[in-house]
Amino acid sequence: MSASKDDWRRRGQERYLRGARLTLKRYQALSAQWEHEHCAFCWHKFLDTQYSETHRQAVEERPDLNSAEGYTTLGAQDRPAGKWWICRRCFEDFAAEFEWSVVKTDPGAWPYEGLEPNPRPTAADYTPPDGPSLPRPE
Ligand SMILES: [Zn+2]
Question: Cα–Cα distance between 94 and 86 in angstroms, integer?
Answer without folding.
Answer: 10
